[in-house]
Design a protein that fits this description.
globular, disordered C terminus, mainly beta, binds copper (II) ion, eleven-stranded mixed sheet
């Protein structure tokens, strides 16, 4: 590893350590939407991305849009990469912390659920192998009403966590049902 690679890794590790403790607290700008990556049951998934993990914890960010006005609830996100948890972030005594979202995360009718740095997200712990930029992770999202939606999520550079996805037709994923 050369000096530049070491510096990049150190920066990524620092970013992730901070995210793991605080889950971020900076509001992110509204990202452009691009193409839907998966759709089904009245929901569409936009801009899925996993910032390159520096350790054995990874976060998933994306936008779930309720397109038919029925509302829903994200209950889980399965993947072979590790054990998934749904997290919310809350401010407690001046500190921003993540807490388990035991009842899932609401997708408001006619609205959207935004998993993003500083907000709710999916977090995998105990990653079974390193995830490099450019790799893709198969994820199955589970919703209370819409059921399961499968998609492939790209791993992006850690500093792009707050940004959203470029349009890439190959990113499109077929819904499982
Ligand atoms: Cu978390």
């Amino acid at each position: 590893m050369n000096a530049r690679e070491r510096a990049i890794r150190a920066a990524a590790a620092a970013a992730l350590a901070w995210a793991a403790i605080a889950c971020g607290s900076e509001p992110s700008a509204t990202p452009p939407r691009g193409e839907a990556h998966a759709a089904g049951g009245g929901l569409a998934i936009y801009a899925p991305r996993i910032p390159e993990p520096a350790g054995d914890v990874a976060a998933l960010y994306l936008v779930v849009v309720d397109e038919e006005g029925r509302g829903d609830r994200l209950l889980g996100a399965q993947s072979a990469i590790g054990e998934a948890m749904l997290h919310e972030t809350r401010e407690q005594q001046g500190l921003v912390r993540m807490t388990p979202a035991r009842d899932g995360l609401e997708v408001p009718a006619h609205g959207e659920l935004r998993l993003q740095p500083g907000g709710p997200h999916v977090m995998w712990t105990g990653l079974r192998e390193p995830l490099g930029v450019g790799s893709r992770v198969r994820v199955t999202l589970e919703f209370e009403r819409a059921g399961r939606l499968a998609l492939e999520v790209p791993v992006v550079p850690a500093e792009q966590a707050a940004e959203v996805a470029r349009r890439d037709p190959e990113d499109a994923a077929a819904p499982e049902r």
